[in-house]
Amino acid sequence: SKIEGNIMKNIAIIGGDLSGVSCAYFLDKFSGANSKKFNIDLIEKDLEFANDKFGKFQYGQEIYDNGWHNSINEQGVLFYLMIELGLHRYLIQSGLTKKVFYTNEGIKYLPDKMLYGYPLDKKEILLSDIFTFKEKLSVLYNMHNTLEDENVEKLTVEEFFKANINEHIYIKLIEPLLTSHYGSDVSKQNMVSLMPELSFLTIQKEDINKILEDMYNRRVIDNITVGREYRLKFTLKSFIETLESNFSGKVFLEFNRDVEKIEKKGEKYLVYSNGSIYQYDYLILTLNQKNFLPWFSQDETIKDFFENMAYVSNIVLTFVYRRDELHINREIGEIIFPKEESEYLTKLEYISNKWIDVKMSGIQIVRAYINRQEAVKKLLKKTDKEIQNIIEEEIRTVHGYVGKPERCYVSKVEDNYRIGCEKYNKKIDVLSNYLAKEYPNLYIIGKSKKATNLENTILEAKETAKEILESIK
């Protein structure tokens, strides 16, 4: 290993996906400001970064993503990182498209003024055609309750919203929107871990209506229905390569390196890799827990935590149609499917309506998301071709005539991210304290602890880098 006296510290990041590469980038960048001396070994078992995660395909001269990574929120940490890297000129702003609901009676439009799927204006709800007349009467009488006697920290998302608003609004409007946004049914997840700002403000016992109006006006990042999105002119795989190209000489890329085991030796860590042993002061694990658990086979506390954690799996299909094989309303960007309205689909996203450069290419790109876990479980057992046939049939139900797609890409990720229930929140605190005591300077981030989106993955990598730098004397 690269040790120069006692001054130089050595850091290993094991796992070269977005989380690992971002963490290396922030460690490298922040260290320049305070001249901390260390080396970073970024260890990846494949021959390139993020090999399994970021699919892409070429059509004509253009390259497109065929997975989840289709847009970036304005104002988020990822957006500012793009600007910092000089990539803003490759960001394309989305068109002003609408999200709509699919129902048996046809397409229903969403109220405009919404936040977290939460309606901010009673009048809009009453004008909306999502609800029946009886439900609208019910909404009038029972929109906002108070949370005075509730402990928000213990509430699930479903309990939180039902304590605040009419149940019909949750079932018909909020739940489908949140499910499509977070990539799974989040009803049973813990409110505080999923929507920290909203729950924190509510804990302060302020008027919920006032809180939401304020957040709406400030265009909070977690706002899931308002504000422009941006798309990279190239894929997120290329973004990771751009991060890598910004590394200084402190970062050593170790591709094609299999880690057999890690071992704690005093205050340092030994990493056994490709027949050699390397010694490190800091260790950051960003890979899936299934890959690192064998290294902790003697540690019952770590094994118990990760083996008993509930995870979410996801399937996304990217269809490419010739323009005349699929006719869609030009103002619709997404169709969201409430629970009872479809067997498999959670959301259809019309890429060609959102991004003008795709529209001009003579093709329609449609992404079909399957996020409800019971539907995902059924489909994971099937072949890609069987999945494609099933989802094509559901798309025909929505559209009527649909021609055969020119191409179809099926992206499946099992155990994509953890479920943050109240039990998880209690256990993660216990685990964090245990790791700090038994494994100082060891960090587990990314796939095995990450929240539900790219923003949070990058934010977590940034915070971890800051914490490590503050601890280096």
Structure description:
By secondary structure, the chain is α+β, with helices and mostly antiparallel strands. The chain is built from 18 helices and 22 strands. A 7-stranded mixed sheet has the order 8-7-18-19-20-17-21. Helix 1 (18-34) packs parallel to helix 18. The longest helix has 18 residues, at 454-471. It is globular, with a radius of gyration of 23 Å. Mean pLDDT is 86; it is low at 1-6.
Shape label: globular
First-residue to last-residue Cα separation: 20 Å
Task: Identify low-pLDDT runs.
Answer: 1-6
Report the strand count: 22
- What value does the average pLDDT take? 86
Q: What is the radius of gyration?
A: 23 Å
Structural class determined from secondary elements: alpha+beta
Could you estimate the helical fraction of the residues in percent?
25-40%
What is the percentage of strand-forming residues? Answer: 15-25%
Helices and strands in order, then pairings?
Blueprint: E1 9-14, H1 18-34, E2 38-43, E3 56-59, E4 62-65, E5 72-73, H2 77-84, E6 91-93, E7 98-103, E8 106-109, E9 114-115, E10 118-119, H3 122-127, H4 133-141, H5 157-164, H6 167-182, H7 191-194, H8 196-203, H9 208-217, E11 229-232, H10 236-245, E12 251-254, E13 259-265, E14 268-273, E15 276-280, E16 282-285, H11 289-292, H12 300-307, E17 311-322, E18 332-336, E19 347-350, H13 351-354, H14 356-359, E20 363-370, H15 373-380, H16 384-399, E21 407-418, H17 422-438, E22 442-444, H18 454-471
Parallel strand pairs: 1-2, 1-16, 2-12, 7-18, 16-22
Antiparallel strand pairs: 3-4, 5-11, 6-11, 7-8, 9-10, 13-14, 14-15, 17-20, 17-21, 18-19, 19-20
Helix pairs in contact: 1-18
